Predict the 3D structure of the following.
Amino acid sequence: MGVNLSGCEFASDGALCPSPATVNTYIDKGFRAIRLPFRGTQASNPVVVSKMKAAVDAAIKRGVYVILDRHDYGNTFDPKEAGWWGSFIKNFPNTTYVMIDTMNEPRKGASYQADPSTRRSYATEVNAGISAFRKAGYKHKLLIEWRGSSGMVRFDKREASNVACESPACSFDRAGGLKDPLGLTMVSGHRYPDSDGSGTSPVCVPNTTGTKLIWNTDLAAKARGLKVWVGEFAFGNHIKVDPICDALGKDALKRMRSLPETYVGVTWWGGGNGWKEDYLYKIEPRKGTFGTAAPSAYLTTITGR
């Protein structure tokens, strides 16, 4: 059970990056993984990198995993992105506790269907990126996302063999699978329970279950021997949780726990002290009170207590 600690991505100068004290507070509250969003342009700012490293070091010291999340909505992981990460990752400890979310909700890259002349596709780009990263000697766990906001309902569209691929699952199938010689790459989907899955409305989808919200990805992943990390998920806040949302969230959690061979972890959205007080997925209570406040019902659920 982990958390997204937003902040770095909010301000280019790193003014809102989570401090070691913030990291420790979240660990004290029960989280065991931290996804740390940042912008790629911040990689050249030594002040921001220093703040990120301090947060990472604080987590590692407590035996907590950190996912460095390039929150740029940019290009699918490929050899160029692998080279970028190979340079940036040198700033952080070379340990199994440091993981890489290669690109948050990518919007660019080759189509899922292979180009007839170049044979390039989403899957071949991803596999080439993984290969380049491994050949450079890096052994970090990698999280791979996909276009369409990494929506878990979009991972597999079960395309017939005689039609073009429209999903990452199909693209991987036709490229011979997701290929990592170290077996350390996972797929990472996002899921919000509002009607379009955007996470912009507090109204959750009625007449469904949390299982159905996420099983498109886990069924497809299990069939292909893939591991899943849920990079973003939320269904309430520290003030209240709508009963429909609460039921969906708890059922999704039950589903994840029932499939330990497929689900590796989840990082809940809405952590960090940079959010406005009225943000619909704000995990923290009023600023300055998180450390001493009694755990909310929502916090207790998402930490697995």
Q: What stands out?
A: The first strand starts at residue 2 and ends at 5.
